[in-house]
Amino acid sequence: MSAAFGLVDAVHHYVPERARSFGIKPGMTVVDYGCGPGRFTVEFAQLVGPDGHVYAVDLLPIALEATKRRLDKAGLTGVELLLADDYNSGVPTSAADMVCAIDMFHHVEPIPFLAEAARITKPDGVLIFSGGHMARPQLKDEITASPLWRLDSDTPEYLKYVKT
User: How does strand 159-163 pair with strand 149-154?
Assistant: First the structure.
């Protein structure tokens, strides 16, 4: 998986641009939910800076190992790697300013995932969806069906939701 993403990243440099488009600011706490090999985790850590914090969450230990290698190579700190237990991310309640779900929603059951995202997000926090293997109308329908989230922004790069 890492090799395939590495090839894609070498040809298409969209990861830094897309990460910047989410509105991450220095000092924020960001969750990279379903972090995979850490492509976005590294960008998020750079954007939040030394006063911010990133939680990289995944179900697979191999994904967290790949993320750790990327972070070590980049010399980044302030990232906590968390092995999720089903839909328990391990992120403290109301910790996140932003939860980012990048190209992963098609892997989860919407109701438990959206409930966990709501639990870990601050009252004024946001949930970002970007990329994915689902048609955008289907993605929006599944998220909107949850009473926990309301669509705030629909851009070509991402969907942004706020807690209801």
Answer: antiparallel
**Domain extent listing, the chain:** 2-163
Residue-wise pLDDT for 61-77, tens only, equals 999 999 999 999 999 98
Q: How many residues does the chain have?
A: 164
Task: Classify residue 157 as exposed, middle or buried by CB count within 10 Å of its CB (0-12, 13-18, 19+).
Answer: middle
> Which is nearest to 53 in space by CA: 23, 31, 82, 20?
31
Answer whether CATH 3.40.50.150 is correct for domain 2-163.
Answer: yes
Q: Which two tokens stand for residue 61?
A: 């230990």
Q: Pairing state of beta strands 96-102 and 29-33?
A: parallel
CB contact set of 19 (below 8 Å; sequence gap of 6+): 40, 43, 44, 47
Tens digit of pLDDT for each residue in 75-106? Answer: 998 899 999 999 999 999 999 999 999 988 88
Rounded mean pLDDT of the chain? Answer: 91
Instruction: Specify burial of residue 51 (Cβ count, 10 A radius: 0-12, 13-18, 19+).
Output: exposed
The residues near 85 (Cβ < 8 Å, ≥ 6 apart) are: none
6 φ/ψ angles, rounded to the nearest 5 degrees = -60, -40
